[in-house]
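$ ./design --mode recover --in tokens.txt
reading tokens...
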């Protein structure tokens, strides 16, 4: 039976990425060595890292614009710490938009470095929307936001215009939609949400914003050190970087971000139309802020939970259960999820309605 993988992360990946990754474990680049055992300083892997970094910038439209792409460790959670370490000036402050669990975690770390201003928050409404009208303190070292909130199913549709550096956690919607990425001074994303397997984190940073904090930065947490070492200041996560490269190659061959955006919108429109039409379901987030990547929805009558769960599991659907913070269901429709899988879920929802 085909499994329709709606897991929020680690994410679904293209079949060709699985195939090429599997082959690399047995024999990488006809070297008769596994990707799991080759030296990260070998010519073959240096070529992988160089291409992965260059391709990330190419897909984002940032080649030749003063940005560097890095593949680091520690997940987005370590970036919650690295961002203020590198960017918040001594005795300075930073502005944050609080739109969910991960944004809140980033705020918690920033508070250890200086004044951390929460410009707006949707916490009181259980993060079911994105705050719209807020003012960013122009004396801030930077403004931080989270583009897509995996747990609550909300997504920023626009970003503020400001003269201070803009930092964005794009872990769960990186490479999924067309944006003017040059408006961001630093972007970070854990690979496991929409780009590759767990174990590496993409950081894209405009070099000119670095080295201005006036504080001591531990060597491993200093972006400048990682840039100088071409993302190999320490041994990188060789296999996750390689699998991420394969995913980026797949995306480029598909037509890049512009092509995948259309596919993603078609998938989201199909599912949200059924959520709104079906008398047994309701969306968990406000309509205008619904995430294209993570659709959250609830049963109107929770006594039907057992039957619906049996039906979607029987259809080969996996990973649909919602996060405990929201309940209900969460359909993560990352880049590699085919629209056919969304149709299977929609058909289950329609059949469920007929039975009730």
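writing sequence...
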């Amino acid at each position: 039976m085909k499994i329709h993988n709606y897991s929020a992360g680690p994410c679904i990946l293209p079949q060709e990425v699985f195939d090429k990754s599997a082959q690399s474990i047995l024999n990488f680049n006809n070297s008769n060595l596994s990707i799991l055992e080759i030296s990260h300083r070998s010519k073959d892997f240096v070529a992988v890292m160089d291409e992965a970094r260059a391709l990330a910038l190419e897909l984002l439209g940032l080649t030749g614009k003063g940005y560097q792409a890095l593949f680091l460790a520690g997940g987005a959670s370590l970036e919650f710490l690295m961002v203020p370490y590198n960017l918040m000036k001594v005795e300075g402050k930073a502005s944050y938009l609080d739109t969910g669990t991960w944004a809140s975690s980033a705020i918690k770390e920033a508070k250890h470095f200086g004044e951390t201003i929460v410009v707006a928050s949707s916490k009181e409404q259980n993060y079911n929307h994105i705050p719209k009208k807020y003012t960013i303190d122009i004396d801030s070292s930077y403004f931080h936001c989270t583009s897509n909130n995996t747990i609550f199913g909300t997504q920023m549709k626009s970003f503020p215009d400001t003269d201070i550096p803009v930092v964005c956690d794009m872990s769960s919607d990186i490479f999924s939609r067309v944006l003017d990425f040059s408006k961001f001074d630093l972007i970070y994303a854990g690979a496991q949400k929409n780009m590759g397997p767990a174990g590496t984190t993409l950081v894209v940073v405009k070099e000119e914003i670095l080295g201005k904090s006036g504080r001591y930065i531990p060597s491993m947490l200093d972006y400048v050190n990682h840039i100088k070492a071409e993302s190999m200041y320490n041994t990188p996560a060789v296999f996750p970087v390689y699998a991420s490269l394969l995913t980026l190659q797949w995306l480029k061959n598909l037509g890049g971000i512009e092509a995948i955006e259309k596919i993603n919108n078609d998938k989201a429109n199909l599912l949200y139309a059924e959520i709104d039409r079906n008398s047994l379901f309701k969306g968990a987030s406000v309509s205008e802020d619904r995430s294209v990547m993570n659709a959250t929805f609830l049963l109107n009558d929770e006594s039907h939970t057992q039957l619906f769960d049996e039906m979607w599991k029987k259809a080969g659907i996996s990973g649909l259960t919602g996060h405990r913070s929201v309940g209900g269901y969460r359909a993560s429709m990352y880049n590699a999820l085919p629209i056919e899988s969304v149709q299977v879920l929609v058909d289950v929802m329609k059949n469920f309605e007929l039975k009730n």
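exit 0
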